[in-house]
Fold:
Amino acid sequence: MARIPVSAVIPAYNREALLGRALDSIARQRTWQPAEVIVVDDGSTDRTAEVAEQHGAKVVRHEENRGLPAARNTCFRSASQPWLALLDSDDEWLPHMLETLWPLRNGPVIV
Structure:
């Protein structure tokens, strides 16, 4: 499976029970995988960071909960790739998400 210059970034707070599903959805991408997966543990009091590490994600920890905007900013600053793909910790990507969007990166984008 080819890697593309994308950082998949997930801010998370107390998402031990849901985070694995989000990370598994990244692993199930067809055709391409992101070059890195980053989870920002925003001061969780559960095993959020451990779940992320078990799935092979790079984990950045906040000592205390700073809120979603701060966690997203930390995700962005921690990314080493020129492209970012956001995923909420309670969501999942469809298996063809990167396969569908990656070819469109240099063309018109409809938001």
About this structure: The mean pLDDT is 94. The radius of gyration is 14 Å. The first helix runs from residue 16 to 27. Helices lie at 16-27, 48-54, 68-78, 97-101.
